[in-house]
Amino acid sequence: MRANRFYVTTPIYYINDVPHLGTAYTTIVADALARYQRARGRDVHFLTGTDEHGEKVEEAARNARLSPRAHADRIVRQFKETWPKLDVASDDFIRTTEPRHAAFVEDMWKRMDAAGDIYLGHYDGLYCIGCEAYVAEGELEDGKCKAHGRAPERRQEPSYFFRLAKYQQPLLDFYRDSPGFIRPESRKNEVVSFVAGGLRDLSISRTSFTWGIPVPGDPAHVVYVWVDALANYVSALGGPGGELYRRYWPADVHLIGKDILRFHAVYWPAMLMSAGLPPPACVFAHGWWSVTGKKISKSLPATRISPTALADDVGVDALRYFLLRELPLGQDGDFSYESLVGRINADLANDLGNLLSRALAMVDEYTGGVVPEPDAAAATAGDETLRILAESARDRAAQAWEDLAPSRALEATWELVRAANRYIVENEPWTLRKSPGKEPRLATVLYTLLEAVRVAAELCAPAMPRAAARIREQLGLPQATQALWPKWGDLAAGLQVRRGAALFPRIDKEREQALLAKWAGGLSPSNATRALQGADRPAAGETGPPPAAPDGKLSYEEFSKIDLRVAIIVAAERVKDADRLLKLTVDLGGETRQIVAGIATSYAAGDLVGRRVIVVANLKPAKIRGERSEGMILAAGEKDALALATFDREVAPGAKVK
Ligand code: MSP
User: Mean of the pLDDT values across residues 24-49?
Assistant: First the structure.
């Protein structure tokens, strides 16, 4: 990377299709890389766009009964609308139908021509429109293109050729001298052996259709769509004379899918060498997503997941997190809704969401919501351990983002999130709060905890910009115009924190079922809406409880369905305008819940904090006086003299009661 600059690109997408999970993946990864680099204070340029010329697009326009231009405008609008909905913030969007693009394509052609690398010949071969490339007989399976499943057409046409063969040795030398050019490393060998196996000159013009950029000096030909498309990375910078070109070229990363590696790692650097321009620093080929085991394809509706619809269902942050975290960049992966829900519940609701709500609930309750001043005299080795871990997680996350390994960066981030959750259990702020003289220690624990939350939020920001902004806001921090890579200790005491709704609400069984049914397309709209809104009661006439056994006795199996857990009350307050109700925040060991309990006439809120109680943990959530209640606390006795069920020795929160 040139000092403090970072230029990242996605492929420009064909407009024979709308954005889908695969194209969204590349674009989200590129966006996260750009956000990380911006957080490091670098001058970032992030480019995406659309590839609008060529036979494939001409064919799609014909099918849509539109002119290629009208078809292009229509699909391009969908791309331009989709990316911001996924929180993709590119600095530029290039369309190959723009004049600025044609200008550089012509310039590049002339440069290559001037280098003696273009000649007029005749092509006779098999052409696959899906690939927009000639294919060799040996690359076919049963006479069909392996990637597109369609038989290529025999084409004979006059064509301009690029002397690719001349660049065999220069390319091999370049790969040797620039070991970071093709990544991941595992992909490099396949390119090197392809080139070492001998290169044939490349046909770079077409006469069989007209939807393209005319060849300079011979308008009977249009420039081959791949030559046209690859040029976008430079045309978007205004060409070699442009200010942006001087600032950003060569690109730091062309992020692409493995399907188009050969074009980027062989043809593109050879064309640039011929044109006298430096090649990009790195072409990174990521893996391929399938959907529940099937290749994403127009003919398989189940694979046609709309990324924006999915983001509407689970939240943009959750979708981005999943795509970045689930698959090490470079590997193939299979998308399944179950694993999406699993990650949301485990990593986002349980780990990160609970960390935030536990921390804020305690600060709210114990210090009136003010970030306390830590007291160095009250610090312990445990605080130091958390600080060291936070700094190491931050540095490992940074290294991983630099290495183009988002999933590793998020893994490191989650080590901090989990350590912060453990820190709560180990330090028991609710006990400190009740111990006279422990105020300095309580202040130090709460400060350390909030600082860990803040650092974790900043580390999450490249992947989940909204969650990071929410956490900043709840911590009372000003919204940074630019995310900043965190430094431990920067959190100022005195800020006013604010509790709020769950950052990542857990997807409970009922909602999961509803979502799965919706995604499978099998839910009637009324049921879907009700279930998706998380309604907690079955509608009249629908499934009620199973009939009780005739003698009223439960089998052990039935009893064991009740999930009783040990919980510690970490905060309690009166529910407004309700004499009998208290709103409790309980710690279930790794999970925080809000429970509304009718015990206000028997207990004062302040007496409850720190108590261990028994919670029915799998009770359907309900709304009581407008407050969400996610469980029930066991108690016995008359209404004004209730006694909470509790334990006669210490048990860990979350332990099962049996
Ligand atoms: N227009 C060319 C690229 C020209 S770049 C100078 C093209 N376009 S495309 O619309 O077919 O997009 C291909 C890219 O979309 C892949 O390289 C990859 O980045 C992304 N993906 C498409 N399907 C995908 C998956 N199933 N999984 C992961 N990425 C996928 O090729």
Answer: 97
d(CA 318, CA 85): 13
Q: Could you tell me which residues are beta bridge partners of residue 119?
A: 161
Note whether 483 and 35 are within 8 A (CB). yes
Report the alpha-carbon distance of residue 60 to residue 336 in Å, rounded. 30
Measured from the CB, is residue 14 less than 6 Å from ligand 1? Answer: yes
Distance 10 CA to ligand 1 centre (A): 9
Q: Which two tokens stand for residue 14?
A: 């064909």
Q: Whose CA is nearest to atom 15 of ligand 1?
A: 23
What is the rounded CA–CA span in Å between residue 454 and residue 327? 26
- Atom 13 of ligand 1, residue of closest alpha carbon: 13
- pLDDT score of 526 more than 80: no
How remote is the CA of residue 51 from the centroid of ligand 1, in Å? Answer: 11
C-beta of 12 in contact with ligand 1 (< 6 A): yes
Give the model confidence (pLDDT) of 73-131 as tens digits. 999 999 999 999 999 999 999 999 999 999 999 999 999 999 999 999 998 889 998 88
- Ligand 1 centroid to Cα of residue 131, in Å, is 11
- What's at 307, amino acid-wise? P
Tokens (6 digits) for 102? 């044609």
User: For residue 387, which of 447, 470, 462, 306 has the smallest C-alpha distance?
Assistant: 447
Entry pTM: 0.82
> Ligand 1 centre from 20 Cα, in Å?
10
Euclidean distance between CA atoms 193 and 382, whole angstroms: 53
Q: Could you tell me if the CB of 48 is within 6 A of ligand 1? A: no
Q: Which amino acid belongs to residue 620?
A: K
